[in-house]
Design a protein that fits this description.
Elements lengths: L3 H7 L4 E3 L10 H10 L2 E5 L3 H5 L12 H16 L10 E8 L11 H21 L8 E6 L16 H12 L12 H8 E7 L3 H15 L5 E6 L6 H14 L3 E6 L18 E13 L2 E10 L9 H8 L22 H8 L4 H14 L3 E2 L2 H12 L7 H9 L5 E2 L5 E4 L5 H14 L16 H14 L6 H4 L6 E4 L1 H7 L44 E3 L10 E3 L18
Helix pairs in contact: 4-5, 5-6, 8-9, 9-10, 12-13, 15-16
Protein name: X8 domain-containing protein
Keywords: Signal
Length: about 575
């Protein structure tokens, strides 16, 4: 990817606000990465269970308890909660719903969208109970628009405040809104609730139109601006002003600048908000649940009225220099393929520091750990010179010779590279199991079947140990899906870390391919699951090109149909 979280951190942020998510996807890696960068995460529940899915809560008289309980329980089980049943430390706040006053059903029916919110919160508490969550619990919030609610009981002419007042009334008196809660919503509101809203108004408007009356009505309830950005405005001045207002307020806890990337898919005025547009260089290709995409580089967007670079205005307000914008659309030494082509892209930049990043990656893919950064830098400088005659093969050969500036006694093993993505790792699993008939992928240990990463650790490790000659960059790379890593990397630094039982230490028993042990023929129709597998999967329509139906592409060891007749997906 592009290391978007790293860029966000370089802009001075301490938290990143997200929108809806798929509860079937695993979110642990994202939260781990945010945590490693010192970023908090504000997550949001998707609109899908509210307004889109069959049986959504608009069809159940705006009682969202069951739909949101099931959705949030999926989130808890897919990374929001850790193995010890505590919330992930990066998760700071949960948005129950974004702008319910515009869609659930709308501003014209405040009692209905308020009922949807309180029943959804009740469902989320039910999910926490079902998951036996313990420890410190994050605050929940409902993010309103900056519209006025003339139908609300109070503050009907104050943006967002009428909705907040109505919600507090419902949390304290839910039966008055035709809802009987399963949990004590009044106690929850007093101890775990934060108000929030979105606005495209400038700082002065926020202060006199909203904050002054809010501080009188809600002196003890914190509030956050989840979307803040007035387009065609002096962003540098306005951001300094809103941050000064927040610092002077006892209840306004912060703002989230809207938004990171231009939304080309929305078009029109919605394209006015992004800090970054897309450049003309693809940093990487990636697979997202059966569809291929390019990760285009980031190009700073500018304010068409003032000419100022929007991300730099944000960085200035947060008191930092910001990222090196000139490098955002250059081949990244942390991401280019470990090949002759990738090496050539970095050498063309003639920067020893960037070549050192590439060289460090090679060391780590050969099972080593750099212990002397100065010597690494001197080594890399030879290969960054414009007149350098040394080739990629020469550099790999030198590093494979185990120079003294790296440590090589690290119990290295071939494992899934957590810097890859689940789709690419799944593709590599399918290739290994489908192209190596002597490797019995049906024999993956049960404890390694819970995630694509654990499965890949076993499959890649077994494949590597079965090779007659072992060359990590040839037999433990799989286009970036695998790494021949030292034990400190795969047991501690990677997130999620590898589990020792899933890392083979000796070649596994092989099978003899006969007419009775060959894999089943290609699946010829759309397959379905009796029980949903606990690992990421997607439907791959490309199977039709190989004479099969839509294949389910999962972890390479347990699905109920085949992938294009060439993978290990046995019933």
């Amino acid at each position: 990817g592009r290391h978007d979280l790293k860029v966000i951190k370089q802009l001075g942020a301490n938290t990143v606000r997200l929108y809806g998510n798929n509860p079937a996807n695993d979110h642990r890696s994202f939260l781990d990465e945010a945590q490693s960068l010192g970023l908090g995460v504000v997550v949001g529940i998707s609109d899908y269970p509210y307004t889109q899915m069959p049986g959504n809560c608009m069809s159940t008289q705006h009682n969202c308890y069951q739909q949101i309980k099931e959705s949030y329980l999926g989130n808890l089980r897919k990374g929001f909660v850790q193995e010890d049943r505590t919330y992930h430390p990066a998760l700071k706040q949960v948005i129950v719903i974004n702008e319910p006053d515009l869609k659930a059903p709308g501003m014209f029916a405040p009692r209905l969208f308020i009922k949807a919110i309180i029943s959804a919160i009740d469902g989320m508490l039910g999910a926490e109970k079902a998951a036996n969550v313990t420890g410190t619990l994050p605050n929940f919030t409902a993010t309103f628009s900056f519209g006025t609610c003339s139908g609300c009981t109070a503050f009907g002419t104050v943006p967002a405040l009428g909705q907040m007042w109505q919600l507090r009334d419902a949390m304290l008196n839910p039966k008055a809104y035709n809802y009987t809660p399963h949990f004590n919503l009044a106690r929850f509101y007093r101890t775990r609730f934060t108000n929030s809203f979105n606005t495209a108004n400038p700082a002065g408007d926020v202060e006199w139109m909203f904050l002054r009356p809010y501080e009188s009505a809600f002196p003890m309830v914190p509030v956050v601006i989840q979307e803040y950005h007035k387009p065609f405005w002096n962003q540098t001045e306005d951001l300094h002003q809103i941050l000064a207002i927040a610092q002077a307020s006892s209840v306004l806890h912060g703002v989230s600048f809207f938004e990171f990337q231009v939304r080309y898919d929305k078009g029109g005025s919605e394209e006015d908000f992004g800090m970054f547009g897309l450049g003309d260089y693809a940093l990487a290709d990636f697979d997202y649940f059966g569809m291929g995409f390019k990760a285009w580089c980031l190009a700073p967007a500018s304010n068409s009225e003032t000419g100022e670079a929007i991300p730099q205005a944000v960085a200035s307000a947060f008191g930092v220099r910001g990222p090196d914008y000139a490098t955002l659309c250059l081949p990244d030494p942390a991401k280019v393929p470990l090949t002759e082509a990738g090496f050539g892209q970095i050498r063309a930049q003639r920067e020893a520091l960037r070549m050192a990043v590439l060289a460090r990656r090679v060391v780590e893919h050969l099972g080593g750990l750099v212990v002397d950064a100065t010597s690494l830098q001197a080594f890399a400088a030879y290969y960054a010179r414009p007149s350098a005659v040394y080739s990629w093969a020469e550099m790999v050969s030198q590093i494979a010779g185990r120079p003294s500036w790296a440590n090589w006694n690290n119990s290295a093993a071939c494992v899934a590279d957590r810097l890859s993505d689940a789709g690419s790792v799944g593709s590599a699993i399918g290739w290994v199991c489908g192209s190596m008939p002597h490797l019995d992928c049906a024999g993956i240990p049960p404890e390694c079947r819970g995630s694509v990463w654990d499965t890949a650790d076993f499959v890649f490790g077994a494949y590597y140990l079965l090779q007659s000659t072992q060359s990590p960059l040839e037999q433990c790379y799989f286009n970036g899906a695998a790494i021949y890593a030292a034990s400190p990397v795969y047991l501690r630094r990677q997130r999620p870390p590898s589990m020792r039982p899933c890392i083979p230490t000796e070649p596994p028993a092989t099978r003899t391919t006969t007419s009775t042990t060959t894999l089943p023929p290609p699946f010829a129709g759309n397959c379905s699951f009796g029980i949903q597998p606990p690992i990421p999967y997607f439907w791959d329509t490309g199977c039709a090109e190989a004479g099969g139906g839509a294949g389910c592409f999962a972890d390479g060891q347990h699905v109920e149909c085949r992938y294009c007749g060439s993978g290990p997906f046995v019933a």
